Amino acid sequence: MEQLLLRLAKVKDQIKALKSQKELLSIEHKKALGTIERLQKLVEIQNNSIRQLEQQLKVKRIADQLGNTEALSANENRALKYKINEIIKEVDKVIALIHE
Questions:
Q1: pTM higher than 0.85 for the full model?
Q2: Number of helices and strands in the chain (H, E)
Q3: Are residues 91 and 48 in contact, defined by beta-carbon separation less than 8 angstroms?
Q4: Tens of pLDDT along 49-75?
């Protein structure tokens, strides 16, 4: 009978230890989820920055083409202006997303 009581006490101690360990793991899990969320937001911001820089590069290339071309036809000039306006709108969208 005494052995059963000792064994029961031992099991109770193990249960307490497991509950304590579960609580610690739960806290660590919540911290990890917070870190993951922050990193996902950071990746999203960096991806938006990359897209913005790619758009700026496209604008620069278009501007370089305009500088190198002596005379553009009216249709080519209109197409380039349209493309530049399109790119500016995309950059504005990215900036708005970054500021959210």
A1: no
A2: 2, 0
A3: no
A4: 898 888 888 778 777 776 665 556 667
